[in-house]
Specification:
38% helix, 203 residues, five-stranded parallel β-sheet
Length: 203
Amino acid sequence: MKLAVISGSHRNGSESGKVSRYVQQQLTASPDVTSTYALDLADNPLPLWDPEAGQPSEKWERVWSPISAELTASDAFVIVTPEWHGMVPAGLKNFFLLCTRGELAHKPALIIAVSAGAGGAYPIAELRMSSYKNNYLCYIPDQVIVRNVRALLNDPAAPQSADDERMRERLRYALGVLLQYGKALQQVRASGAIDLAKYPFGM
């Protein structure tokens, strides 16, 4: 399978980027994963959605088509988001607005929220509520909140504390569950039951 990791922070050198790189490293080591794709939203590389995004447009073909192709080829996703003012960053929500070509449809995703303190729950609730309807992304029941992130995952090779080890174990478990969902939903997409041409939008 091919797995895609989306780092939702706008900030260069972000903790979300650090977590994303660790996750990608773990996925690359899995025998079930043939390749990975990383999309880092630092510095807002994607223009804001506009009406041209859903129609033939030179600008959007240049900017979005290469990313769309990578996402379409992926079987599962990891969405890493910081909590900014109790919210998901605007650039990550913008990313979901652009996924209108079936890139994410009927594929599983694991949410990983990142907090410098004891927060991190609000972005998970927000993503589960409002980011999947028209792109048909399937969030798995498991989720991970990396609290006090500055003290965790700093050395990819070895944990630096008991908390660090517990977080790595939880991530290994959640990623393992995601991979099994990835295998299962391949069968759903191949079943012929899905008709995105007739039903492109959720209700």
